[in-house]
Amino acid sequence: MKVTVAGTGYVGLVTGVCLAHIGHEVTCLDVVEEKIEMLKNGKSPIYEPDLEDLMLKNKDRLNFTTNYKKAYKDADVIFIGVGTPERIDGTANLDYVNEVARQISESIDKDTVVVIKSTVPIGTNDRIEEYLNGNIKNGIKVRVASNPEFLAEGTAVKDTLYASRIVIGTEDKIAEKVLKELYLPLTKKPYNVPLLSMDRRSAEMVKYASNDFLALKISYINEIANFCESVGANIKNVTLGMGYDPRIGNKFLNSGIGYGGSCFPKDTKALHWLSKSLDCELKTVKACIEVNKDQKLRLFHKLKNSLYLKDLEVAILGVTFKPNTDDLRDAPSIDNVELLLEYGANVTVYDPIGLDNFKKRFKDRVNYASSINEAIKDKEAVMIMTEWKEIKEYDLNNYVKYMNKANIFDGRNCYDLDDFKNIDAYYVSIGRKDVGSLK
Ligand code: UGA
Known about the structure:
With 439 residues, this protein is of the alpha/beta class. It has 18 helices and 14 strands. The chain folds into three domains: 2-198, NAD(P)-binding Rossmann-like Domain (Rossmann fold); 207-295, Orthogonal Bundle (N-(1-d-carboxylethyl)-l-norvaline Dehydrogenase, domain 2); 298-428, NAD(P)-binding Rossmann-like Domain (Rossmann fold). The chain binds uridine-5'-diphosphate-glucuronic acid. Uridine-5'-diphosphate-glucuronic acid (UGA) binds at residues 119, 149-153, 211, 214, 218, 252-254, 256, 259-261, 263-264, 321-322. The site of uridine-5'-diphosphate-glucuronic acid (UGA) has 20 residues, from helix 9.
């Protein structure tokens, strides 16, 4: 099939490349020239494992362009995968989705199925369909279907090809048939992805309900972790014991300094706002948002309560919102570093992938290191913000060897408490007892 995907961010680009991989002719469209130039040269503008390999493998079925008229003109299916960022009041900003809809209405000259993959408030698919059919040439019909995305950054290709499920939301039999045909290869071996058809509004809701449930799980376990500190329990043991119950499961039970990224923060706020506006406030989601806001600064407060921050030499290990991505959106490191600077600390940061993006924001307000050893050298405290493999596997003896004072504040519980038995460091983590004494 001829497919056009609007947006070359995580959702759009990965969708386009994976659809090419299963045999479709795909055009990826973006308004940013530089991105398209990079893609034409086989380079991905986002850091995502396996993506460039897959682009190379399927280069004959992939086109990249900024020309929307050509890209939409005779597409069988158009995917909308542009961003729906958060507005200051927490609502979803649909400007990009609306602009794509306007461009589609200007460009198509045959019946088309438009698929909204971007995360959009319930009812948006209805509105976009109404807009398109009211604004295109007479005689052409657009069918809009919801097809929410469940990929996570860092595992996006695997999450798309071997998806947990494909959800198609449409009441239109033709749109359903087209999408079933499009996704047919993924429903077969070796992928075997379950495909669920449902009404459009429910499909839109599946996305929010799933993301908000996962965010709630994290906020819940973070609160339990904080409580463990008060009662002298160890959150790692507690989650180990909980995770064996298949009804609970052992995933998304890692406590730390809260969730970040481009999805959970915005999707919890958007759904909460929508529920409030409909006079049916989701109080659990509201609590989840509040807990996460406080949790992000929990490690900072532990540090501040232990050490005088003015002129303190602090190293930050990990700045991205999670490992295996260079994404800094809503990363806990941002607020923590801002606060450290406000209190007069001298900050040195290290991250295996995220430093370029961090530099764009913090410029020369912090120092940059090219290794963990360099970052922690002569420091009086270290704060771990992202659980990169390299940080988790770091030799703990080096903290003592290189730091001026080995005060380790771990916001991602990278190490076991027992690991510090023979290490003369002060180790503070989340939901567990502190080990050693302040240096
Ligand atoms: C999330 C969802 O996991 C995807 O299913 C969804 O498709 C995506 O949002 C989206 O809406 O596009 P993502 O934001 O890439 O994916 O990252 P996650 O792996 O879910 O992590 C989100 C945040 O939760 C990270 O900051 C991570 O550190 C935190 N987290 C995750 C925890 O604090 N504890 C955990 O146990 C798991």
